Each structure stands twice: as structure tokens, then as C-alpha cells.
User: Fold FeoB-associated Cys-rich membrane protein from Abyssalbus ytuae.
Amino acid sequence: MITLQHILVYITVLLALVFLIKKFLLPKKKTSKTCGKDDCGCH
Assistant:
């Protein structure tokens, strides 16, 4: 019998795996090198 505690553990593990996959395995989007109108501290 699956209890509420098991469901919460499965959801937590799933969210952690999704976070790790997004952070390390998916390619990062390239950001433009220009600062634009505001000073973003890239000088």
C-alpha cells in the first residue's frame, strides 16, 4: 500500500532529477555579450 509519505518521496526525487537534468545535461542558452541600456556589470 502506497502511503502519502511514499508519494511525497517520489515527487521529491522526481523534481530533483528534473533539476539536475536541466542544470547539467541540457545545453545552456547563449546570452548576448552586449549589456544593453543598463549597466549589468560586464565591463
Summary: Helices lie at 4-25. The radius of gyration is 19 Å.
